[in-house]
User: Fold these one by one.
Assistant:
Number 1:
Amino acid sequence: MRGLPVRKAGGIVAIIAGVFGVLAALTTLLVGGLGAAFEAEGAGVIIGLGWGGMVFSFAAIVLGAVSINAKSRVPGILLIVSSILGTILGGTLVAIFMVLALVGGILATVGVKDVSVEQPEAQ
Protein backbone atom coordinates (compact mmCIF):
# COMPACT_ATOMS: atom_id res chain seq x y z
CA MET A 1 0.00 0.00 0.00
CA ARG A 2 3.02 2.29 0.45
CA GLY A 3 3.61 2.69 -3.28
CA LEU A 4 0.05 3.69 -4.16
CA PRO A 5 0.14 7.37 -3.04
CA VAL A 6 3.58 7.91 -4.59
CA ARG A 7 2.46 6.42 -7.91
CA LYS A 8 -0.72 8.51 -7.96
CA ALA A 9 1.21 11.65 -7.05
CA GLY A 10 3.68 11.00 -9.86
CA GLY A 11 0.86 10.59 -12.36
CA ILE A 12 -0.88 13.76 -11.20
CA VAL A 13 2.36 15.76 -11.31
CA ALA A 14 2.99 14.50 -14.86
CA ILE A 15 -0.53 15.45 -15.98
CA ILE A 16 -0.15 18.96 -14.57
CA ALA A 17 3.28 19.31 -16.19
CA GLY A 18 1.85 18.13 -19.51
CA VAL A 19 -0.99 20.67 -19.42
CA PHE A 20 1.42 23.52 -18.70
CA GLY A 21 3.77 22.09 -21.35
CA VAL A 22 0.98 22.33 -23.93
CA LEU A 23 0.45 25.99 -22.99
CA ALA A 24 4.20 26.59 -23.28
CA ALA A 25 4.27 24.85 -26.67
CA LEU A 26 1.39 27.02 -27.88
CA THR A 27 3.33 30.08 -26.76
CA THR A 28 6.38 28.84 -28.65
CA LEU A 29 4.24 28.26 -31.76
CA LEU A 30 2.82 31.77 -31.41
CA VAL A 31 6.27 33.33 -31.22
CA GLY A 32 7.46 31.23 -34.15
CA GLY A 33 4.39 32.20 -36.17
CA LEU A 34 4.97 35.87 -35.47
CA GLY A 35 8.59 35.45 -36.50
CA ALA A 36 7.53 33.78 -39.74
CA ALA A 37 5.00 36.54 -40.42
CA PHE A 38 7.71 39.15 -40.11
CA GLU A 39 10.13 36.96 -42.08
CA ALA A 40 12.57 36.63 -39.20
CA GLU A 41 15.54 34.36 -39.61
CA GLY A 42 15.16 30.99 -37.83
CA ALA A 43 11.41 31.20 -37.35
CA GLY A 44 10.98 27.74 -38.86
CA VAL A 45 13.17 26.26 -36.15
CA ILE A 46 11.04 27.87 -33.45
CA ILE A 47 7.88 26.47 -35.04
CA GLY A 48 9.49 23.01 -35.14
CA LEU A 49 10.39 23.28 -31.46
CA GLY A 50 6.80 24.26 -30.71
CA TRP A 51 5.45 21.16 -32.44
CA GLY A 52 8.00 18.97 -30.70
CA GLY A 53 6.93 20.42 -27.37
CA MET A 54 3.29 19.81 -28.23
CA VAL A 55 3.90 16.14 -29.04
CA PHE A 56 5.89 15.40 -25.89
CA SER A 57 3.55 17.41 -23.67
CA PHE A 58 0.59 15.35 -24.90
CA ALA A 59 2.67 12.22 -24.32
CA ALA A 60 3.30 13.38 -20.73
CA ILE A 61 -0.44 13.85 -20.18
CA VAL A 62 -1.31 10.41 -21.55
CA LEU A 63 1.52 8.58 -19.79
CA GLY A 64 0.78 10.39 -16.53
CA ALA A 65 -2.83 9.23 -16.70
CA VAL A 66 -1.78 5.67 -17.52
CA SER A 67 0.81 5.55 -14.74
CA ILE A 68 -1.75 6.36 -12.02
CA ASN A 69 -3.20 2.84 -12.10
CA ALA A 70 -0.27 1.00 -13.68
CA LYS A 71 0.82 -2.34 -12.30
CA SER A 72 4.27 -2.14 -13.92
CA ARG A 73 7.03 0.40 -14.25
CA VAL A 74 6.77 0.71 -18.02
CA PRO A 75 4.53 3.85 -18.10
CA GLY A 76 6.81 5.60 -15.61
CA ILE A 77 9.90 4.74 -17.63
CA LEU A 78 8.23 5.90 -20.85
CA LEU A 79 7.26 9.11 -19.06
CA ILE A 80 10.88 9.68 -18.08
CA VAL A 81 12.04 9.09 -21.67
CA SER A 82 9.29 11.36 -23.03
CA SER A 83 10.17 14.16 -20.63
CA ILE A 84 13.87 13.97 -21.51
CA LEU A 85 13.08 14.08 -25.24
CA GLY A 86 10.63 16.94 -24.64
CA THR A 87 13.32 18.84 -22.79
CA ILE A 88 15.69 18.47 -25.72
CA LEU A 89 13.23 18.90 -28.61
CA GLY A 90 10.61 21.22 -27.13
CA GLY A 91 12.33 24.52 -26.59
CA THR A 92 13.09 26.47 -23.45
CA LEU A 93 9.56 27.08 -22.21
CA VAL A 94 8.54 23.46 -22.64
CA ALA A 95 11.78 22.27 -21.02
CA ILE A 96 10.81 23.94 -17.76
CA PHE A 97 7.66 21.85 -17.50
CA MET A 98 9.28 18.70 -18.83
CA VAL A 99 11.59 18.76 -15.80
CA LEU A 100 8.43 18.63 -13.69
CA ALA A 101 7.19 15.72 -15.81
CA LEU A 102 10.54 14.01 -15.21
CA VAL A 103 9.95 14.25 -11.47
CA GLY A 104 6.47 12.79 -11.99
CA GLY A 105 7.94 9.93 -14.02
CA ILE A 106 10.47 9.17 -11.32
CA LEU A 107 7.73 9.15 -8.68
CA ALA A 108 5.54 6.92 -10.85
CA THR A 109 8.41 4.49 -11.41
CA VAL A 110 9.51 4.35 -7.77
CA GLY A 111 5.92 3.99 -6.53
CA VAL A 112 5.26 0.67 -8.28
CA LYS A 113 6.10 -2.49 -6.42
CA ASP A 114 7.83 -5.11 -8.50
CA VAL A 115 5.20 -7.85 -8.86
CA SER A 116 7.58 -10.30 -10.53
CA VAL A 117 9.57 -10.87 -7.32
CA GLU A 118 7.62 -12.71 -4.69
CA GLN A 119 8.41 -11.68 -1.16
CA PRO A 120 8.03 -14.19 1.66
CA GLU A 121 5.38 -13.36 4.20
CA ALA A 122 6.60 -12.37 7.64
CA GLN A 123 5.25 -14.48 10.50
Number 2:
Amino acid sequence: MNMTDKELSHDISAAQYDEKDFFLTLQSFDGVIDYIEQRCTQYGCDARNTYRIVTASSEILANIESYAYESGGNIQIRTCVCENTIRIVFIDDGAPFDPFSVQEPEVSAPLSEREPGGLGIYIVRSLMDSVSYRYENGQNVLTIEKSFQADE
Protein backbone atom coordinates (compact mmCIF):
# COMPACT_ATOMS: atom_id res chain seq x y z
CA MET A 1 0.00 0.00 0.00
CA ASN A 2 1.56 3.31 -1.07
CA MET A 3 0.31 5.96 1.30
CA THR A 4 1.42 9.34 2.53
CA ASP A 5 2.03 9.85 6.24
CA LYS A 6 -1.22 11.84 6.39
CA GLU A 7 -3.09 8.77 5.17
CA LEU A 8 -1.51 6.37 7.64
CA SER A 9 -3.90 4.88 10.14
CA HIS A 10 -3.03 7.03 13.16
CA ASP A 11 -2.03 10.63 13.61
CA ILE A 12 1.06 10.60 15.81
CA SER A 13 2.87 13.83 16.52
CA ALA A 14 6.66 13.99 16.28
CA ALA A 15 6.89 14.58 20.05
CA GLN A 16 5.65 11.03 20.70
CA TYR A 17 8.47 9.32 18.81
CA ASP A 18 11.44 7.57 20.39
CA GLU A 19 14.47 8.33 18.20
CA LYS A 20 17.86 6.69 17.89
CA ASP A 21 20.68 7.37 15.42
CA PHE A 22 22.94 4.66 14.02
CA PHE A 23 25.81 4.41 11.58
CA LEU A 24 24.52 1.55 9.44
CA THR A 25 27.03 -1.03 8.19
CA LEU A 26 26.98 -4.80 7.96
CA GLN A 27 28.69 -4.82 11.36
CA SER A 28 26.07 -2.59 13.04
CA PHE A 29 23.06 -4.22 11.35
CA ASP A 30 22.26 -6.60 14.23
CA GLY A 31 22.37 -3.75 16.75
CA VAL A 32 19.75 -1.81 14.79
CA ILE A 33 17.52 -4.89 14.56
CA ASP A 34 17.98 -5.52 18.30
CA TYR A 35 16.88 -1.94 19.00
CA ILE A 36 13.71 -2.36 16.90
CA GLU A 37 12.92 -5.68 18.58
CA GLN A 38 13.41 -4.10 22.02
CA ARG A 39 11.04 -1.28 21.11
CA CYS A 40 8.38 -3.80 20.05
CA THR A 41 8.78 -5.64 23.36
CA GLN A 42 8.60 -2.40 25.35
CA TYR A 43 5.41 -1.44 23.50
CA GLY A 44 3.85 -4.80 24.44
CA CYS A 45 3.72 -6.21 20.92
CA ASP A 46 2.93 -9.93 20.63
CA ALA A 47 5.68 -12.30 19.45
CA ARG A 48 4.10 -13.07 16.05
CA ASN A 49 3.85 -9.42 15.01
CA THR A 50 7.24 -8.58 16.52
CA TYR A 51 8.68 -11.22 14.19
CA ARG A 52 6.87 -9.62 11.22
CA ILE A 53 8.12 -6.16 12.14
CA VAL A 54 11.70 -7.41 12.60
CA THR A 55 11.57 -9.27 9.27
CA ALA A 56 10.26 -6.21 7.41
CA SER A 57 12.79 -3.96 9.16
CA SER A 58 15.61 -6.33 8.18
CA GLU A 59 14.59 -6.07 4.52
CA ILE A 60 14.43 -2.28 4.71
CA LEU A 61 17.80 -1.99 6.44
CA ALA A 62 19.43 -4.40 3.99
CA ASN A 63 18.22 -2.22 1.10
CA ILE A 64 19.45 0.96 2.78
CA GLU A 65 22.83 -0.59 3.56
CA SER A 66 23.19 -2.01 0.04
CA TYR A 67 21.84 0.81 -2.12
CA ALA A 68 21.81 4.10 -0.21
CA TYR A 69 25.45 4.08 0.86
CA GLU A 70 28.71 2.77 -0.59
CA SER A 71 30.36 2.02 2.75
CA GLY A 72 27.85 2.66 5.52
CA GLY A 73 25.94 5.76 6.48
CA ASN A 74 23.77 7.50 9.01
CA ILE A 75 20.25 6.33 9.70
CA GLN A 76 17.70 7.47 12.21
CA ILE A 77 15.04 5.12 13.56
CA ARG A 78 11.90 6.66 15.01
CA THR A 79 9.39 4.45 16.78
CA CYS A 80 6.07 5.03 18.47
CA VAL A 81 2.91 3.20 19.43
CA CYS A 82 -0.68 4.40 19.33
CA GLU A 83 -3.75 2.24 19.98
CA ASN A 84 -1.88 -1.07 19.52
CA THR A 85 -0.23 0.04 16.29
CA ILE A 86 3.52 0.38 16.01
CA ARG A 87 4.95 2.91 13.58
CA ILE A 88 8.62 2.79 12.61
CA VAL A 89 10.22 5.49 10.50
CA PHE A 90 13.55 4.88 8.76
CA ILE A 91 15.35 8.09 7.76
CA ASP A 92 18.59 8.12 5.79
CA ASP A 93 20.45 10.67 3.71
CA GLY A 94 21.74 8.15 1.18
CA ALA A 95 20.93 8.00 -2.52
CA PRO A 96 17.24 8.74 -3.16
CA PHE A 97 15.20 5.63 -3.83
CA ASP A 98 11.42 5.27 -3.96
CA PRO A 99 10.68 1.57 -3.37
CA PHE A 100 7.27 2.04 -4.97
CA SER A 101 8.93 2.92 -8.28
CA VAL A 102 9.98 -0.72 -8.65
CA GLN A 103 7.54 -3.04 -10.39
CA GLU A 104 6.17 -5.73 -8.09
CA PRO A 105 7.71 -9.14 -8.75
CA GLU A 106 5.64 -11.82 -10.43
CA VAL A 107 5.65 -14.23 -7.50
CA SER A 108 3.36 -16.76 -9.16
CA ALA A 109 5.83 -17.36 -12.02
CA PRO A 110 8.35 -20.20 -11.75
CA LEU A 111 11.63 -19.10 -10.17
CA SER A 112 13.53 -19.72 -13.42
CA GLU A 113 11.28 -17.18 -15.21
CA ARG A 114 11.44 -14.38 -12.64
CA GLU A 115 13.52 -11.24 -12.91
CA PRO A 116 15.95 -10.84 -9.99
CA GLY A 117 15.18 -8.27 -7.31
CA GLY A 118 12.08 -6.66 -5.91
CA LEU A 119 11.23 -9.31 -3.35
CA GLY A 120 12.37 -7.26 -0.34
CA ILE A 121 9.79 -4.48 -0.69
CA TYR A 122 7.20 -7.10 -1.66
CA ILE A 123 7.88 -8.86 1.65
CA VAL A 124 7.68 -5.58 3.56
CA ARG A 125 4.36 -4.68 1.94
CA SER A 126 2.90 -8.12 2.60
CA LEU A 127 3.91 -8.13 6.29
CA MET A 128 2.93 -4.56 7.21
CA ASP A 129 -0.49 -2.90 7.42
CA SER A 130 0.83 0.22 5.72
CA VAL A 131 4.04 1.38 4.09
CA SER A 132 4.84 4.88 2.84
CA TYR A 133 7.82 6.64 1.31
CA ARG A 134 8.75 10.24 0.70
CA TYR A 135 11.94 12.09 -0.16
CA GLU A 136 12.13 15.22 1.96
CA ASN A 137 14.92 17.69 2.74
CA GLY A 138 17.52 15.46 1.07
CA GLN A 139 16.45 12.36 3.02
CA ASN A 140 14.66 9.10 2.30
CA VAL A 141 11.80 8.64 4.78
CA LEU A 142 10.22 5.18 4.82
CA THR A 143 7.41 4.53 7.30
CA ILE A 144 5.86 1.20 8.25
CA GLU A 145 2.93 0.42 10.53
CA LYS A 146 1.71 -2.80 12.08
CA SER A 147 -1.23 -3.41 14.41
CA PHE A 148 -0.68 -5.96 17.15
CA GLN A 149 -2.24 -7.81 20.03
CA ALA A 150 -0.80 -6.88 23.40
CA ASP A 151 1.24 -9.65 24.97
CA GLU A 152 -0.33 -10.97 28.14
Number 3:
Amino acid sequence: MRTIVLIAGLVLLLIFAVLNFGSLMALHPMNLGFVQYVTAPVGLIMLLTAVFAALLFYFWAGISNLRAQADSAKLLRDMETLRVSLDSQEGSRFAELRSHLDSRMNALGTGETSNEVRAVHSRIDELQRDMNLQLAQLDDYLKGKLGESSTTPPSMVEVRLDKLDK
Protein backbone atom coordinates (compact mmCIF):
# COMPACT_ATOMS: atom_id res chain seq x y z
CA MET A 1 0.00 0.00 0.00
CA ARG A 2 2.83 2.41 0.83
CA THR A 3 4.48 1.66 -2.49
CA ILE A 4 1.29 2.46 -4.39
CA VAL A 5 0.87 5.76 -2.56
CA LEU A 6 4.53 6.67 -3.20
CA ILE A 7 4.30 5.84 -6.90
CA ALA A 8 1.03 7.79 -7.24
CA GLY A 9 2.58 10.81 -5.50
CA LEU A 10 5.70 10.71 -7.66
CA VAL A 11 3.61 10.35 -10.84
CA LEU A 12 1.53 13.38 -9.81
CA LEU A 13 4.72 15.38 -9.15
CA LEU A 14 6.10 14.31 -12.54
CA ILE A 15 2.91 15.36 -14.32
CA PHE A 16 3.02 18.69 -12.45
CA ALA A 17 6.67 19.17 -13.48
CA VAL A 18 5.99 18.38 -17.17
CA LEU A 19 2.99 20.72 -17.31
CA ASN A 20 4.86 23.54 -15.53
CA PHE A 21 8.36 22.93 -16.86
CA GLY A 22 8.83 26.55 -17.92
CA SER A 23 7.84 27.91 -14.53
CA LEU A 24 9.96 25.38 -12.66
CA MET A 25 13.04 26.25 -14.73
CA ALA A 26 12.58 30.01 -14.32
CA LEU A 27 15.64 31.59 -12.71
CA HIS A 28 15.13 33.58 -9.54
CA PRO A 29 17.51 34.90 -6.93
CA MET A 30 17.79 32.43 -4.05
CA ASN A 31 19.14 32.96 -0.52
CA LEU A 32 20.07 29.95 1.67
CA GLY A 33 21.10 32.05 4.63
CA PHE A 34 24.85 31.61 4.34
CA VAL A 35 25.08 31.59 0.55
CA GLN A 36 23.18 33.70 -1.94
CA TYR A 37 22.73 32.49 -5.49
CA VAL A 38 22.06 35.14 -8.05
CA THR A 39 19.99 32.91 -10.26
CA ALA A 40 18.70 29.40 -9.59
CA PRO A 41 15.61 27.42 -10.62
CA VAL A 42 13.74 27.62 -7.28
CA GLY A 43 10.75 25.63 -8.54
CA LEU A 44 12.97 22.72 -9.64
CA ILE A 45 14.80 22.77 -6.30
CA MET A 46 11.48 22.67 -4.42
CA LEU A 47 10.26 19.82 -6.63
CA LEU A 48 13.42 17.79 -6.03
CA THR A 49 13.18 18.51 -2.30
CA ALA A 50 9.61 17.14 -2.28
CA VAL A 51 10.70 13.99 -4.14
CA PHE A 52 13.61 13.50 -1.75
CA ALA A 53 11.33 13.96 1.30
CA ALA A 54 8.81 11.45 -0.11
CA LEU A 55 11.54 8.86 -0.72
CA LEU A 56 13.07 9.53 2.70
CA PHE A 57 9.74 8.95 4.50
CA TYR A 58 9.02 5.87 2.37
CA PHE A 59 12.31 4.23 3.35
CA TRP A 60 11.90 5.32 6.98
CA ALA A 61 8.48 3.61 7.09
CA GLY A 62 9.99 0.48 5.52
CA ILE A 63 12.75 0.36 8.11
CA SER A 64 10.19 0.83 10.90
CA ASN A 65 8.15 -2.04 9.48
CA LEU A 66 11.25 -4.26 9.32
CA ARG A 67 12.07 -3.44 12.95
CA ALA A 68 8.53 -4.34 14.00
CA GLN A 69 8.75 -7.64 12.13
CA ALA A 70 12.13 -8.39 13.70
CA ASP A 71 10.72 -7.69 17.17
CA SER A 72 7.74 -9.91 16.43
CA ALA A 73 10.02 -12.72 15.21
CA LYS A 74 12.17 -12.41 18.34
CA LEU A 75 9.06 -12.55 20.53
CA LEU A 76 7.83 -15.64 18.70
CA ARG A 77 11.23 -17.34 19.13
CA ASP A 78 11.18 -16.51 22.86
CA MET A 79 7.65 -17.86 23.19
CA GLU A 80 8.62 -21.06 21.37
CA THR A 81 11.63 -21.51 23.68
CA LEU A 82 9.40 -20.96 26.70
CA ARG A 83 6.82 -23.44 25.37
CA VAL A 84 9.49 -26.10 24.84
CA SER A 85 10.84 -25.49 28.34
CA LEU A 86 7.39 -25.74 29.90
CA ASP A 87 6.62 -28.90 27.92
CA SER A 88 9.79 -30.56 29.18
CA GLN A 89 9.02 -29.52 32.77
CA GLU A 90 5.48 -30.86 32.43
CA GLY A 91 6.83 -34.12 31.01
CA SER A 92 9.19 -34.52 33.95
CA ARG A 93 6.33 -33.87 36.38
CA PHE A 94 4.20 -36.51 34.67
CA ALA A 95 7.07 -38.99 34.81
CA GLU A 96 7.51 -38.22 38.51
CA LEU A 97 3.78 -38.70 39.11
CA ARG A 98 3.78 -41.95 37.15
CA SER A 99 6.70 -43.32 39.17
CA HIS A 100 4.98 -42.31 42.42
CA LEU A 101 1.72 -43.99 41.37
CA ASP A 102 3.60 -47.10 40.26
CA SER A 103 5.37 -47.33 43.62
CA ARG A 104 2.05 -46.88 45.47
CA MET A 105 0.36 -49.54 43.32
CA ASN A 106 3.25 -51.92 43.91
CA ALA A 107 3.00 -51.24 47.63
CA LEU A 108 -0.72 -52.04 47.54
CA GLY A 109 -0.03 -55.20 45.59
CA THR A 110 2.62 -56.46 48.02
CA GLY A 111 0.55 -55.69 51.12
CA GLU A 112 2.85 -53.10 52.66
CA THR A 113 -0.14 -50.87 53.31
CA SER A 114 -2.36 -53.60 54.78
CA ASN A 115 -1.65 -52.26 58.30
CA GLU A 116 -3.02 -48.88 57.22
CA VAL A 117 -6.09 -50.50 55.69
CA ARG A 118 -6.68 -52.55 58.85
CA ALA A 119 -6.36 -49.41 60.97
CA VAL A 120 -8.93 -47.60 58.83
CA HIS A 121 -11.34 -50.53 59.01
CA SER A 122 -10.98 -50.79 62.78
CA ARG A 123 -11.60 -47.04 63.11
CA ILE A 124 -14.74 -47.35 60.96
CA ASP A 125 -15.98 -50.26 63.10
CA GLU A 126 -15.32 -48.28 66.27
CA LEU A 127 -17.22 -45.25 64.93
CA GLN A 128 -20.11 -47.48 63.89
CA ARG A 129 -20.35 -48.97 67.40
CA ASP A 130 -20.24 -45.50 68.95
CA MET A 131 -22.97 -44.26 66.63
CA ASN A 132 -25.15 -47.30 67.40
CA LEU A 133 -24.69 -46.71 71.13
CA GLN A 134 -25.59 -43.04 70.83
CA LEU A 135 -28.67 -43.83 68.74
CA ALA A 136 -29.79 -46.41 71.31
CA GLN A 137 -29.31 -43.89 74.11
CA LEU A 138 -31.28 -41.31 72.14
CA ASP A 139 -34.05 -43.83 71.56
CA ASP A 140 -34.20 -44.68 75.27
CA TYR A 141 -34.26 -41.00 76.18
CA LEU A 142 -37.10 -40.27 73.75
CA LYS A 143 -39.07 -43.27 74.98
CA GLY A 144 -38.66 -42.06 78.54
CA LYS A 145 -39.79 -38.56 77.69
CA LEU A 146 -42.75 -39.66 75.59
CA GLY A 147 -43.86 -42.21 78.16
CA GLU A 148 -43.85 -45.20 75.86
CA SER A 149 -43.80 -48.64 77.36
CA SER A 150 -41.34 -51.30 76.44
CA THR A 151 -44.16 -53.37 74.91
CA THR A 152 -44.39 -51.15 71.85
CA PRO A 153 -43.12 -52.50 68.57
CA PRO A 154 -39.47 -51.81 67.84
CA SER A 155 -38.74 -48.40 66.38
CA MET A 156 -37.15 -47.84 62.99
CA VAL A 157 -33.87 -46.96 64.69
CA GLU A 158 -33.77 -50.35 66.42
CA VAL A 159 -34.58 -52.15 63.19
CA ARG A 160 -31.83 -50.32 61.36
CA LEU A 161 -29.40 -50.97 64.23
CA ASP A 162 -30.18 -54.67 63.98
CA LYS A 163 -29.54 -54.61 60.25
CA LEU A 164 -26.23 -52.76 60.77
CA ASP A 165 -25.06 -55.31 63.34
CA LYS A 166 -25.64 -58.15 60.87
